[in-house]
Amino acid sequence: MGFYTLEQTQKIPSSMEKVWDFISSPKNLKEITPPHMGFDIITKNLPEKMYPGMIVGYKVSPLLGIKLTWVTEISQVKYLEFFVDEQRIGPYTLWHHQHQIKQIEGGVLMTDIVNYVPPFGFIGDIANAILIKGQLKDIFEFRTKKVIEIFGEFKE
Questions:
Q1: CA distance 129 to 144
Q2: Over the stretch 34-46, which tens digit does the pLDDT of each residue have?
Q3: Of these four, 1, 27, 85, 109, which has the most CB atoms within 10 Å of its CB?
Q4: Domain boundaries in the chain?
Q5: Are 92 and 119 a contacting pair, CB within 8 Å?
Q6: How is the chain classified by DSSP, letter by letter?
Q7: 91-133 residue pLDDT tens
């Protein structure tokens, strides 16, 4: 059974507060998720901002349009620095996603670090090599484009 890490960074020409307000609001998750994922939040009455211990349930269709329930817990939050979501119910054996932001000249550096273990042992390792790793990269590439649409492109 493999343990995998996906890390991605993106420079955003905005303030820490604006970026934090956007990424820490559960209502924005659907906007930055590819439509083909069939992403829908099923938890009712979510607050405007994430907090430690918050549970968020989703329906997603990562493969062949099959709807799966995915439940995450926001396990840690440090205002204007980071938050962590961890899968409690879902398709992975382990999912731990750190969302970090840091002030840089001209804007904000957003870093995502996803540690995950696919299901089904060595079969999951094969699925990761063939499908999962590429699908995760595609999801983050979509998100990168959406963030550029929302905040603009960072000028070096």
A1: 22
A2: 998 989 999 999 9
A3: 85
A4: 4-151
A5: yes
A6: ---EEEEEEEEESS-HHHHHHHHT-GGGTGGGS-GGG--EE--SS--SS--TTEEEEEEE--STT--EEEEEEEEEEETTTEEEEEEEESS-SEEEEEEEEEEETTEEEEEEEEEEE-SSHHHHHHHIIIIIHHHHHHHHHHHHHHHHHHH-PPP-
A7: 999 999 999 999 999 999 999 999 999 998 999 899 889 989 9
